[in-house]
């Protein structure tokens, strides 16, 4: 164990800036933009001698990566009350950008003991990789309330993802929730029973995938012993007709509170069904690939 080393360092910077503008007592505009920036640096090496590591030759690897997630929202909200019905409606847009890069070196066949730098290895390799993914969205939500005992809210959202084929990169999903405080509606609250609520919800959620799973690309291999360029294909066969996956769920439940909520009872039943789930499944090696991305 003294001859095996593994280090992983991580630096992270997060920041958010926001602003709001009250047009009047009913109309409000808000904007927000946030960044999540991560730098990682990893080093691992093993001394010559252990047959389980690089056939006993010793090895070394040093990898550095950086990634950024930039998330921005703009939202307009209108609040009013019509004949005792509270109305809260919003329209908004979101833009999310993810991008990053990594670079690394590795080697084996140690020349000089206890000197862990890439120049100390007879066989050395390097890698350089970058990625980018963008998603822009439009959404709306509405909340209704009446009498302090009935509440209903609904959402509708459309996402457009660069990680999906152009024919399938736009997808919709929605949710609806309702709750009824029957203890207040029927006036049955007392010292020992202070809250009774029924609730129900239905929702669909869309999801995309990671970048470059729909495109076939080549990797240029490092072959120092050959005088010509060699390229290889990735292990997973891409899906040019990939669709977004969708999860549908519904839930019903009841909440009861006793003795000023010192005792609470919460009962829930729910079901979730996912369709067009995105996954990589094994396929025959005679195809030239080990797996295929499918819905």
Would you mind describing this structure in some detail?
It contains one helix and 15 strands. A hairpin with an 8-residue loop joins strand 9 (219-221) and strand 10 (230-232). Helix content is 1%, strand content 67%. With 295 residues, the protein is mostly beta strands. The strands form three sheets. It has a ten-stranded antiparallel β-sheet.
Describe the structure using short key phrases.
295 residues; three-stranded mixed beta sheet; 67% strand; elongated; mainly beta
Helix content: under 10%
Distance between the termini: 44 Å
Secondary structure: number of strands: 15
Question: Radius of gyration in whole Å, from Cα?
Answer: 28 Å
**Quaternary arrangement of the chains shown?**
single chain
Largest beta-sheet details:
10 strands, antiparallel
Structural class: mainly beta
Helix-strand pattern = EEEEEEEHEEEEEEEE
Low-pLDDT ranges: none
Count helical runs. 1
Give me the side-by-side strand order of the main sheet: 1-2-3-4-5-6-7-8-12-13
Task: Give average pLDDT, whole number.
Answer: 91
Shape field? elongated
SS strand fraction:
over 45%
Quick recap:
This protein has 295 residues and is mainly beta.
Helix-strand layout with pairing:
Elements (H helix, E strand, L loop, with lengths): L3 E19 L4 E20 L12 E24 L2 E26 L10 E26 L3 E12 L8 E12 H4 L7 E15 L11 E3 L8 E3 L3 E2 L7 E14 L4 E13 L3 E4 L8 E4 L1
Parallel strand pairs: 11-15
Antiparallel strand pairs: 1-2, 2-3, 3-4, 4-5, 5-6, 6-7, 7-8, 8-12, 9-10, 12-13, 14-15
